[in-house]
Amino acid sequence: MTVFKSLIKKASQLRAYSLLSLSFLLLVLAFSCKEEPRIESVDFTQVEFADFVEPDFPYITTSMDARNLGTGFPTDNISARVIAMRLADGAYACFDPDMLRWSVAWTGDFLPMVTMAQISYKNFYDKNNKIPRIGGEPHFATGQYPGWSVEEPVFTDPRPANPYPNAPSWGPLAADEVRWEGHYLVDDELVLSYTVNDVSVLENPGVVQQDGQTLFTRNFNLSPTKSKLILALAEVTDGVSMEVKGDTGYLYHGEDGNLVTAVSVAGASSGSEILIKDNRYIYLSIPADSKSREFSVGVWHGASENQQQVETLTSQMDTSFPKVERGSQSRWKEKVLTKGQLAPDTALFVTDKLTLPVPNPWNRNVRVVDMAFFNKKKAAVVTFEGDVWILDGISAKLDKLAWKRFASGFYEPQSIAVVDEEIYVYGKEGIVRLHDLNGDGEADFYENFSNLMAQSIETREWASDMVVDPAGGFYIAKFGALDMGPETSSPKAIMGFRAGSQHGGAVHRISADGRAMSQVASGFRGPYLGIDPKTGFLTGSDQQGHYMPSTPIMAIKQDDYYGVPATAHRAEIPEITSPLVWIPHAEDRSGVSQVWVHSDKMGPLNGKLVHLSYGRPGLFQVLVDDTGKALQGAVTVIDADFPAPTMKADMNPGDGLMYITGFSLWGHNSEMLSAMLRLRYTGKESHLPEKFQARDAGIMIRFATELQEAVALNPANYSVKRWNYLRTQKYGSGHFKLDGDNGEEQLPILDVQLSEDKKAIFLVIPMMTEVQQMEIGYTLMSTLGMDINDKLWLTVNDIAAPNLLSEGFKEVDFNRLLASSDISTVSNIEDVIPTLDHGKDLYTKMNCIACHSIDGNNDGKIGPGMQRIFGSEREFSDGSSAVADEAYLKESIVAPSEKIVKGFDEGMPSFLGVLTENDIRSLVMYIRSL
Fold first, then answer.
1. How would you class 835 by CB atoms within 10 Å of its CB: exposed for 0-12, middle for 13-18, buried for 19 or more?
2. Would the pLDDT of 441 be above 80?
């Protein structure tokens, strides 16, 4: 536009206006201002995505099981984190950043794409993941020991032993000895960076190939060294003889010594030696040197009759070193333009859709997990594929969104943060800080900010969440090693859990420099986090399952323990910390993160905590009640349209609105694979409660709007239920009365009080006591005519005396009201007449539909389909079988852990006490009809 304005100005100055020239200029100007086409909607099912591994990116980060490479290779070779490097067409190697070692090098095919992110990349709901193994012929490997050591070689694992017998050790080597620093991208090359005994090491991996032979090369740049360094290069378990000729060492192996693994060094300083120990371990001894130096190492494997080719291949090694400081050429120059969709203002809160960049020039899937804002118009977005995108152009209309790829190669990341304009990504490799060295809008240096959190190879030990500590640093959460997915190396710990790592199922704090980590709380199954950016108040949620009876929201404090013994990580298991609030399974069967709202643009949510539910999907407003002795909470649903699972949220500092990300993989009640949403307050009258108190004489609920007095004072417009959960090794929990019998209790409402401002009600309820779950239902009306038909779920951790005067109520004689009450009015929930229609309603209400299909399409479902199940033969994981008759279906509803269908994991809670006998009969009637 500026160019054409100057042209017009110049034409004016020359007084050269002719009708033809002006028309031409206007035509060119109009053409230049024409909008590029923008993507306005996404249908993932209509896009043909390219392969997960992209041809112009030199690596992926993943796990590796290399324990079964064959005769002559080490059998203790397993890595939870590897950089799988594509060195040339058909030549690959894995670098283990925890141990700073090449775990395996091979030729042939690359890794099979079988981890969770990879296998579901094109087949969105495929969860039959595995642990990767090499896809070709191994050339050499090293075992479970450091790739580098000081003064003397180390061929044992020096990391602390796993507390579970026969389980591997996990995590990085001691940071005061060695530290992984990250890696550089330099065009199509990869440069690894790490520190060994305060020596800075840069390593550029590569290959030399000729006449069907492959020499794997490692070019090094070392800073001055004060001590002798040892570099482990290869291990051969069936070695028979060895020899060293000049700068090359040969280890002969195989039955007749017909195979050889050879190592050559070029450019090394005087005193460097290729050494072979016990006809097994090949290593390089590097003497101390006051100067920086560069040298190269080549490793070759083949038939001994071809060993003369080693010299030829070695002579072709390129010993030059890439200039890492200059960054890399751009890979993803194009921007993808999209246009969002604004929702009509039909409710208190609505969700605008920010259209995702699908399709894109790289045919890349884009399943968004988390986002973080730089400023009001710009955010960083991370995907489950391991990509980071920069989203620019966020505005009120969302009509000019621009997406630019910034980074790739992460291992199933679930969190991203922006601190001081720098991007941090948290995945299974740890926390990575990204640097754009040449200012071209793409990351060139992937810095290891912190990999102190150990990661096991167990596929369900997710790196689930990371939040910024306003005091500096981060809090991170990790799943426990759930007993699901492929069985690899970890023995069973307790029901539902494998041994996993020493940091699984816990929340840790990472220092501001990334160099220190401390445990905050433990005993989680699968925690996610939230933090108040103003106060640092830390919250979390967990996944219902073994030892976790329902979805909790926790106010996390130092040394808290939340009930899973396998992830306690302490010598003596303490008393279980009570959650802030429990949420019933039917309302939220898969809780994820939380976000604090500090924005007057969010109306009634300003100052509130919001909890995100994956399985619902949707949001809950969380209210906190402080009795002086304990915190206790309540939740209510925030009604809006959520077309995809809701996982993470961030507040935009510019428009003050909440932005939500999530994608589908497990069972859920949504229609889209992935979505990015903006939760927008429309200014309509709010029906949400603002405050609650659970007190000795009842429950107080305060609203933002005035209530119609006659409706509010009618006890018939309220219902109160309560129940406890039972924490056991079984998956989830039924509902239990306070005396331990199964079921729920219905409580009477003796009286209703209305505050002077008509915005708060107090329900007078007898026999108030500590209880894990209460449900308050109410049907009210505001003075402006708005219907308020809602429920509040709360937990009572402490009973304090009410102080209604401070809340604007008149004085109430509770003693008189309670003395006249009849405790026999506490009753069981009234049963209903069993009908097929009631069963159909329950199937939706209890979220059965999220896990069990009714139409034969089981994509995205984690449980067996129900179509034509009645009367079929069911085969179970223990080898037994049964016919799916009424007795079997009833047992599956109240005791689902008793019989697990073959091919499925245990993942359904008991509905004992949740459903009445006639509810169950209704469900069976409906399932039988399918």
1. middle
2. yes
Q: How far apart are CA 35 and CA 314, in angstroms?
A: 56
Residue type, 106: W
Task: Decide: 768 and 706 in contact? Cβ < 8 Å.
Answer: no
Number of domains in the chain: 4
Specify the 3-state DSSP secondary structure of 367.
Answer: coil
Which residues on neighbouring strands pair with residue 140, listed in sequence order? 105
How far from 388 is each of 83, 371, 752, 905, CA to CA, in Å? 18, 9, 54, 32
Residue 27's domain comprises 2-32
Residue 496: closest CA among 478, 480, 483, 479: 483
Q: Residue 96's beta-bridge partner residues?
A: 101
pLDDT digits (tens, 9 = 90+) for 464-498: 999 999 999 999 999 999 999 888 888 899 999 99
> Do the strands 827-828 and 751-754 form a parallel or antiparallel pair, or are they unpaired?
unpaired
Using alpha carbons, select from 701, 734, 736 the residue that is nearest to residue 718: 701
903 inside domain: yes
Kindly state whether residues 850 and 872 are assigned to the same domain.
yes
Asked if 177 and 195 count as a contact pair (C-beta separation under 8 A), the reply is no
The Cβ of residue 272 has, within 10 Å, a number of other Cβ atoms equal to 20
Residue listed under structure tokens 């072709």: 316
Q: What are phi and psi of 714, to 5 degrees?
A: -90, 110
| pLDDT of 34 above 70 | no
Is residue 27 domain-shared with residue 96, that is, in the same domain?
no
Q: What are phi and psi for residue 325, nearest 5 degrees?
A: -70, -20
Tokens of 196: 């060994």
Residue 573, pLDDT score: 94
Rounded distance, CA 146 to CA 84, Å?
Answer: 18
**pTM (2 decimals)?**
0.91
